[in-house]
Recover the amino acids of this structure.
């Protein structure tokens, strides 16, 4: 996710920026999925994962908003 964001930050065009932010969103959502799975299956105590789940949700929201804004939606 971090590497994709760095690429978005140095995008050469709006289209490239939108594409790279889309990659960030996909990675953030995938991370959220795995964290939820770890929590649901109690591989890691849900209490320990709570801050990571919150941050992952926030990142998904940020990337959704950034993507929509960049597209003019």
């Amino acid at each position: 996710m971090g590497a994709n964001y760095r690429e978005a930050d140095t995008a050469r065009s709006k289209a490239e920026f939108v594409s790279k932010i889309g990659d960030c969103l996909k990675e953030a959502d995938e991370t959220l999925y795995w964290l939820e799975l770890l929590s649901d299956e109690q591989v890691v105590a849900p209490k320990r994962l709570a801050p990571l789940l919150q941050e992952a949700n926030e990142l998904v929201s940020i990337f959704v908003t950034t993507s929509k804004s960049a597209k003019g939606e």
About this structure: The mean pLDDT is 95. The first helix runs from residue 2 to 9. Residues 25-73 form one domain. The two ends are 23 Å apart (CA to CA).
